[in-house]
Amino acid sequence: MQENKIYEYAVIRLVPKVEREEFFNIGLIMFSKREKYIRFEFHLCNEKFKSMNPELDYQDVFQNLENFKHVVKGEKEGGPIALLDIPERFRWLTAVRSSVIQTSRPHPGKTVDLDETFERLFLELVK
Predict the structure, then answer these.
(1) Domain residues of the chain, as ranges?
(2) For residues 61 and 68, what is the distance between their CA atoms, to the nearest angstrom?
(3) 37 CB burial (10 A radius; 0-12, 13-18, 19+)
(4) How many CB atoms lie within 10 A of CB 26?
(5) Contact 24, 48 (CB under 8 A)
(6) Residue-level pLDDT, tens digit, the chain, 127 residues
(7) What is this structure's pTM?
(8) Among 86, 94, 99, 92, residue whose Cα is nearest residue 31
């Protein structure tokens, strides 16, 4: 029998007009301290993006999400935060902020397969 792995995940949200507090889900980040696992994916639908706020620059948001990915992967392009260990990167990325890209509060879970669970959550919550 495989042992359950404890993980946390947060949904990445696009908040086109922060003052209105409307958002739609555009990504997912998941981490497991014991497994030294962190994963992030996003899906930015151009049509939905334009309908929420046509004044917002798609390329700017896309580049910010790419920078988010650099931090998750621990790449030097992510700056000093990317050099932190996995739990610190996850905590920094999921910190509460008032910006166009926000995250939900982290949610815990258990699974025998982190990648399979990530795929399921991404499909359910983002796509």
Answers:
(1) 5-125
(2) 10
(3) middle
(4) 20
(5) yes
(6) 688 999 999 999 999 888 888 899 999 999 999 999 999 999 998 888 888 888 889 999 999 999 999 999 999 999 999 999 999 999 999 998 888 999 999 999 999 999 999 999 999 999 9
(7) 0.92
(8) 86
3-state secondary structure the chain: CCCCEEEEEEEEEECCCHHHCCCEEEEEEEEECCCCEEEEEECCCHHHHHHHCCCCCHHHHHHHHHHHHHHHHCCHHHCHHHHCCHHHHHHHHCCCCCCCEEECCCEEEEECCHHHHHHHHHHHHCC
Do the Cβ atoms of 28 and 122 come closer than 8 Å?
Answer: yes
* Cα(78)–Cα(111) distance, integer angstroms: 29
The owner of tokens 């997912």 is: 28
Query: Which of these, 100, 111, 108, lies nearest to 23 by C-alpha position?
Result: 100
Please give the Cα distance from 117 to 99 (Å, whole number): 28
